[in-house]
Amino acid sequence: MIPVLIPSLPETDAIVPYLRRIDQSHIYSNYGPLSRAFTETLCRFVSERADGAPVAATITGSGTTAIELALRYRIAGRKGRLCLMPAYTFVATAHAAVNVGLEPFFADVDPETLALTPAIAARALAAAGGDVAAVVVVSPYGAPIDVAAWEAFETAHGIPVVFDAAAATLNLHRVGAQPICVSLHATKALGIGEGGAILTTDTDLVAQTTAMTGFGFSASSRVSEVRGGNYRISEYAAAVGLAVFDGLEARIQQLRDASLAYVAGFERIGVRMQPGFGRDWLTMTITALFEPGTADAVTAGFDADGIQWRRWYGTGCQAHPAFATCRHDGLAGTAAAAASAIGVPFFPAITPAQIDAVCGSVERSLAAR
Ligand SMILES: Cc1ncc(COP(=O)(O)O)c(C=O)c1O
């Protein structure tokens, strides 16, 4: 059996030096020294890979709560009860909106890129009928986001945009004031177990959402200035995070080599992947895009060959009973995306032979049709 994903985090020995610092400081949470060091390291990493803008971050307990806090900040004082978002996303996006009192309105996606576009969002805004408080733009499986296009969208429509870029921490080419929410879950290319972050150049947003992570207290007081809760990470999570950065360059190289092997293997047999994947950006949930009517034969072949696969976003959020009554503007592109996009085995230690086995299985299934 070739598994679809094997998460891997730093091993014990790499974490121990940071754990010893906790033993000495006796600080276990509440924005302690390791948490602050992790936040600074993450900001520097993202800044350097983006356009050099000084990125600030709010660290949260998960990617889902990062989206919640970013939304809560951006809808404060605004009218509207709907949150426009693509139906084709992991269901966490929809939960986050509901958790801050909004109701998802599902928009379609472009089946070529699997992403919501400003044009599709503008059409959905009109269909929603003027009751939209915010738009959540999702980076499908970590694909880079066109921040400039969404800044123009926000200016044109006057509706705040929040990015759910859960899997895109390695792929942020630009960071602006609009909050970019990432997940640091173990299954992500940059994972620490559980965690999330809001990345932005807006320091007021970071000050307010950081306060929200600790009961709404501002840095120097025990007075709740804003509504909040406990969304912090512990020093133990930050210890893992610092160890992750120690090994990150080597891990990125490993991911890049395996990704390029997949790109070459699928190119050889004429199978598409997400635009730019492998050459321009990396992820842990690698998705191949099959032509209409062919994916079922490929997945049957995978089952017969002992190759695990997954439709990581299922058939869209509207298919979940919890969100079945949410409105949408027609989801033909979502159905096409869900039918075509199949997650194939991928993990840092995947071998060339395993990648050959996956591509060979696809080639045989397509030839037998
Ligand atoms: C698109 C998307 N949004 C949100 C999340 C939620 O992140 P977390 O599991 O860290 O809460 C995920 C997690 O996989 C995701 O893929």
From TrEMBL:
Highest taxon in the source lineage: Bacteria
Keyword set includes RNA-binding: no
GO molecular function, one term: pyridoxal phosphate binding
GO biological process, one term: polysaccharide biosynthetic process
Active-site residues annotated for this sequence: K188 (proton acceptor)
Keywords: Aminotransferase, Pyridoxal phosphate, Transferase
Pfam family, one: DegT_DnrJ_EryC1
Coiled coil start-end: none
Residue numbers of N6-(pyridoxal phosphate)lysine PTMs: K188
Family: Belongs to the DegT/DnrJ/EryC1 family.
Matches recorded under PANTHER family: PROTEIN RV3402C (PTHR30244:SF9), TRANSAMINASE (PTHR30244)
Protein name per the record: DegT/DnrJ/EryC1/StrS aminotransferase
